[in-house]
């Protein structure tokens, strides 16, 4: 079987186009893939979350917490970028979880220095793993910081 040079060029061109389309499809699929799996220790229940907060130095009202479903945005605005900087300082990175539905647990802190009241601890959980969190006060002289005091922002 003899193939002319013209036909061979057409076949090679078609194969290159098909290969290119497959490669572009694979790149697109890899960009749209699910977020990275949360790594680290599992915190499947309230007792394990309380233990984690205790290890960070916080005592909380064990029976009084708020559980909320949250959506981590697909695209971070400036405020969320600043918030994620707090997360990075403490070893988390919410940019790995863009577009994910997570659960947020909010606890009342009972041992904040100088007996300051209305201070909250927040844990963000994805697949039973902590992917972020912070300490805050929404009072007039409010603040936000990481889960450990050295991550004051």
Keywords:
alpha+beta; 5-stranded antiparallel sheet; 27% strand; 153 residues; 3 helices
Rounded to an integer in angstroms, the radius of gyration calculated over CA atoms is 24 Å
- What structural class do you assign from the helix and strand content? alpha+beta
| Beta-strand residue fraction | 25-35%
Strand order of the largest sheet: 1-2-3-4-5
Q: Which regions have little confidence, pLDDT < 50, spanning 5+ residues?
A: 30-36
Q: Quaternary arrangement of the chains shown?
A: single chain
| Total count of helical runs of at least 4 residues | 3
Cα end-to-end separation: 74 Å
Assign an overall shape.
elongated
Largest sheet: 5 strands, antiparallel
Order of helices and strands: HHEHEEEE
Report the mean per-residue pLDDT as an integer. Answer: 85
The counted number of beta strands is 5
Please estimate the helix content: 25-40%
Describe this entry's structure for a reader:
With 153 residues, the protein is an alpha+beta fold. Helix content is 32%, strand content 27%. The protein is built from 3 helices and 5 strands, in the order ααβαββββ. The protein has helices spanning 5-31, 46-55, 78-89; strands spanning 60-71, 101-109, 119-126, 129-137, 143-145. It has a 5-stranded antiparallel beta sheet with strand order 1-2-3-4-5. The longest helix has 27 residues, at 5-31. The chain is elongated, with a radius of gyration of 24 Å. Mean pLDDT is 85; it is low at 30-36.
Write the layout of secondary structure elements.
Elements: H1 5-31, H2 46-55, E1 60-71, H3 78-89, E2 101-109, E3 119-126, E4 129-137, E5 143-145
